[in-house]
Structures are given as C-alpha cells and as structure tokens.
C-alpha cells in the first residue's frame, strides 16, 4: 500500500512539473487560479504542522512535541537554517522526555 | 567582481549543497516513520520535491492511508506547475530535455533561474541548481534513511517532534503576506478540530481546503508568492 501511494505521488508530482513546462499559460495564469495556487502551500503546511504536533491517532494530546515546535519557532525567529531548526525541535523533545 | 557566469555557478552550487544536505533529515524521518530505505529513496528519486515528500511521510506516519498521503503530497506539489509556467519561456526546453528538465522544477531551481537577468545565465542556474540539489538530496536521503533505521523508537530522539519542526520551517518563508498567514492559521485550526472526528490524513486535506476557501474570501490586497 505504501508503494502504491509512492507511485501515485511520483506520477502526480512529475505530471504537474511537466504540464507547467508544456501548456500554454492562458488558463493557468487566470487571477483566481493564481490566488488558489498561492494559498495551497501555507494552508496545507499549517494543517500538517498542527496535526503532526497535536494528534496521536484520533486523539489530541499535548506532549513534548509541542515544546519541540516552540523551540523551532525560536530558532526560525533567530533565522537559523533548516537543519538547525529540525534538530532543535528533536533535541528539545528528546531532552524533555528524559526528564 | 567575478565574471557573472562564475557567480551563477558558485551560487547555484551553494544552494544545491545547502538544500541537498537536509535530505538527510528527510531520509531519517522517513525510515523512523515506518518506511523502509527503498521507499525513502524512491520518494527522493521519483517525487523529488521536498515539502511533498515530508507531507507523504507525515500523513503515513500519523496512520493515514497512503492515498491520503499521496493526495496531500500532490496538492502541495501543485506549486511546481506554476513554477513551470514561469520557467517555460526562459528555458525553452524541447523533447527529451523537457522530459528530464521537468523533474528538476522545484523551489530552489526556479528561484535561482528566475533571479538571473540574462537567459543564458538563467538556464545555467536552473541546470546547475537542479542537478546539484538532485544528486545531493538523493545521496543524503540514503544516508539519513540508513541512520533512521538504526535508531529504533523515533520518540527517543524526538524525531516525531522534528517532523513538526520541518513542516514549520517549510511554512515559515511562505508567511510573507497577510492572506498566507491567515490561511496557515485557519488550516491548522480546522485540521486540529477535525482530528477526533475523521480518519487520519483527512484533517490535513479538509483543513487545507477550508483554509484556501477562507483565503479566497479575504480581500486580495498584496499577493504573496506561492
């Protein structure tokens, strides 16, 4: 099942890239299409952050992951690079669990 | 001042190295989330667009069916469609060059290509950035995936929290304008509210859809980049 998901994702993502390079841009540069396109990444990433940090199966829980996210916020405000942000979130959560 | 071509090369390779390096976090989080090394590497080779890959892993790790992961991932990948439209008149790729070049259409190669004033330099920047990210991203995914399998319970090292941090780091630079900020918060709130009531994976797609709808209802004002 995971492989099926990977193959569908691969075909879908590649098709989007190829279509962008290939189609005449009249339809796709309409203002509404462009607005939707600009909104999709923040909408989905916002949802992904929340679910990743708060959900455990179908339950909402507050645990060390939330502290990890807080650490990530601080690091992003300090303009830390991507890997430092990710590692900072991990280390914060791991240390909290040790205590 | 160095010759323009040289600075394009140096900048493109620099972006390639910096971006490729965080493939290690993708590989580690993918295998720690239950994928095997082959699956992690297949995602980096075949999907090759970072946010979509993290999204797939995040949904699957949360217990969502792989097709929900695929749907989230493809929706996030839709921005590459618009990158392609912007790049097409600059790159003018035909035939097999377009078939291969399409896979290199990602955030970084687009930004580097469209940042050049001259078409030859734009093509050079696209190729160099795309190829260097591709090579390093895949090598580092393999390294990270092997490390991730050695870790055991991902919670011990806080890797579950690292995925949330990764999503936030991907989101952060997109919060450039008011609509994007509102939409991110609405997406997070709706998805959180749906967690107890829907199957894993669905809160993300439904939350994202609701947020886009809210975003369209906002006065358009300044439009941020996707």
What topology emerges from the helices and strands here?
The complex is a heterodimer of chains A (99) and B (226).
Chain A: H1 2-22, H2 31-54, E1 55-56, E2 59-60, H3 64-77, H4 82-98
Chain B: H1 4-21, H2 23-32, H3 37-47, H4 50-61, H5 66-91, H6 95-103, H7 107-114, H8 119-149, H9 159-171, H10 178-194, H11 202-217
Summarize this structure briefly.
Chain A has 99 residues and is mainly alpha-helical.
Structure description:
The complex is a heterodimer of chains A (99) and B (226). Chain A has 99 residues and is mainly alpha-helical. Helices cover 77% and strands 4% of the residues of chain A. Chain A has helices at 2-22, 31-54, 64-77, 82-98; strands at residues 55-56, 59-60. In chain A, strands 1-2 form a two-stranded antiparallel sheet. In chain A, α3 packs antiparallel against α4. Chain A is elongated. The mean pLDDT of chain A is 91. In chain B, α4 (50-61) packs antiparallel against α5 (66-91). The radius of gyration of chain B is 18 Å and the shape is globular. Chain B contains 11 helices and no strands. Chain B has helices at residues 4-21, 23-32, 37-47, 50-61, 66-91, 95-103, 107-114, 119-149, 159-171, 178-194, 202-217. Chain B folds into 2 domains: 6-174, no CATH class; 176-226, no CATH class. Chain B is mainly alpha-helical.
